[in-house]
């Protein structure tokens, strides 16, 4: 078992992690053997997926890019569960059955060329590649509500080689559809069904300027992308905690 200080957890961005939202914090952790890992994605599931309720789930990469699924308890216990494959970059949770079963993790992995694929992860240890998405997908979130494109869809962000970000919808039927451009260097995505002051059923994204300063934006599926305020330097990872 690995342990990690909660000051470090704050750097990972777990203070804002919740159900059904994909995130991409980047931080280096060293386990009990001195092995360094980069925590690339994390979320929390209030339901018991096999290891207990109210746990954080995180993807950690070793130096070679091999990813492992970890659970994190707020008691401080960080436990590696099983390997999931190479270069997993973002993850979300869907309690609904999207065609593959209920209470599954959905994760984006990348090959060496940057081509991204959608995978399902069951806490039984089954990691199944479902279909290709396209190049350079960096963030993923799940929305059960119909935001204009249909209910029970995955939403994802991909970047081109210049860093320009585009919002996509992903249906587990295999349809991957570019919806509209967001702007430069968006790296994290979350969904809130509740109104947090800007309206209900909005996506929230983090973007960075060339110096690494990060801002939070609201994203409406009507195509409106509004920068709201700055949140600091090199902030990765954004999730809205849903109520039980």
Task: Describe the overall structure.
It contains 1 helix and 18 strands. The protein is mainly beta and 244 residues long. It has a single domain, classed as Fucose-specific lectin (Neuraminidase, 6 Propeller). The strands form 4 sheets. The chain has a 6-stranded antiparallel β-sheet with strand order 1-6-5-4-3-2, covered by helices on one side. Strands 7-8-9-10 form a 4-stranded antiparallel β-sheet, with no helix packed on it. Strand 5 and strand 6 form a beta hairpin.
**Which percent range fits the helix content?**
under 10%
Q: Shape from CA axes?
A: globular
Give the CA-CA distance, first to last residue: 28 Å
Largest sheet: 6 strands, antiparallel
Extract low-pLDDT stretches: 1-36
Structural class: mainly beta
Widest beta sheet: strand line-up: 1-6-5-4-3-2
Query: What is the number of domains?
Result: 1
Topology (SSEs and partners):
Elements: E1 2-3, H1 6-12, E2 27-30, E3 36-45, E4 55-61, E5 66-72, E6 77-86, E7 88-94, E8 104-110, E9 115-121, E10 127-135, E11 137-143, E12 153-159, E13 164-170, E14 176-184, E15 186-192, E16 202-208, E17 213-219, E18 225-233
Antiparallel strand pairs: 1-6, 2-3, 3-4, 4-5, 5-6, 7-8, 8-9, 9-10, 11-12, 12-13, 13-14, 15-16, 16-17, 17-18
Structure keywords:
244 residues; mainly beta; Neuraminidase; 4-stranded antiparallel beta sheet; 1 helix; 18 strands; globular; disordered N terminus
